[in-house]
């Protein structure tokens, strides 16, 4: 099998034939589509198979659409604002029914997300770390002859290495880890 190759604009040509019979071009735009999910395995899909194979199979067949949860929406809201600010307004328009309450005011959880976005965007370290990076980079490869795909929030390529940066939002670490466990001897900073 041929290994996937990254192409200009973060597109990936895969080793498997796409739905239409051509090699599938995967971009940040179609990355989350059913067609891509049918051709490539991702970390999220792998976890989904482990949780409930029947539900995952039904999703891939187009028979089941999992409900949109508030934490997922907030994560997407922050992700769009931070990684692709040029697409943020359009995403908000598409999802305004989830973002705004019945009286038209922004829900409190999205107000808190706005505060998080402001803290990130005002942080000098954040800007220094992602300087020179390409946003929403799609990459693929094979593990055990299975095509795998991932999309990093940012990637910086140099002559010898590629640095992948993946932005995460979380309610907090206190329930899961101590500060010492999170740091694990490395430089770690939360904003």
Summarize the structure.
This protein is an alpha+beta fold.
Radius of gyration: 19 Å
Mean pLDDT rating: 80
Strand content: 15-25%
Coarse structural class: alpha+beta
The 3D shape can be described as globular
- State the end-to-end CA separation: 43 Å
Number of strands: 6
Estimated helix fraction: 40-55%
Structure in words:
This protein is of the alpha+beta class and 191 residues long. 40% of the residues lie in helices and 20% in strands. The chain has helices at 34-39, 43-51, 53-60, 70-83, 85-94, 96-99, 108-121, 124-130, 179-183, and strands at 5-6, 12-17, 23-26, 134-143, 146-157, 162-165. The chain has a three-stranded antiparallel beta sheet with strand order 1-2-3, with no helix packed on it. A hairpin with a 5-residue loop joins strand 1 and strand 2.
List strands and helices in order, with pairings.
Layout: E1 5-6, E2 12-17, E3 23-26, H1 34-39, H2 43-51, H3 53-60, H4 70-83, H5 85-94, H6 96-99, H7 108-121, H8 124-130, E4 134-143, E5 146-157, E6 162-165, H9 179-183
Antiparallel strand pairs: 1-2, 2-3, 4-5, 5-6
Helix pairs in contact: 2-3, 4-5, 4-7
């Amino acid at each position: 099998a041929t290994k996937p190759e990254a192409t200009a604009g973060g597109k990936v040509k895969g080793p498997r034939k796409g739905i239409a019979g051509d090699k599938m071009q995967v971009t940040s735009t179609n990355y989350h589509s059913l067609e891509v999910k049918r051709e490539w395995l991702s970390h999220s899909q792998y976890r989904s198979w482990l949780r409930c194979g029947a539900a995952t199979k039904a999703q891939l067949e187009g028979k089941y659409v999992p409900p949109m949860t508030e934490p997922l929406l907030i994560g997407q809201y922050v992700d769009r604002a931070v990684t692709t600010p040029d697409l943020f307004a359009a995403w908000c328009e598409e999802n305004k029914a989830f973002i705004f309450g019945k009286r038209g005011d922004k829900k409190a959880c999205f107000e808190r997300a706005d505060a998080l976005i402001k803290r990130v965007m005002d942080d000098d370290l954040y800007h220094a770390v992602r300087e020179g990076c390409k946003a929403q980079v799609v990459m693929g490869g094979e593990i055990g002859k299975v095509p795998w795909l991932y999309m990093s929030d940012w990637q910086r390529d140099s002559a010898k290495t590629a640095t992948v940066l993946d932005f995460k939002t979380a309610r907090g670490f206190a329930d899961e880890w101590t500060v010492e466990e999170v740091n694990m001897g490395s430089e770690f900073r939360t904003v």
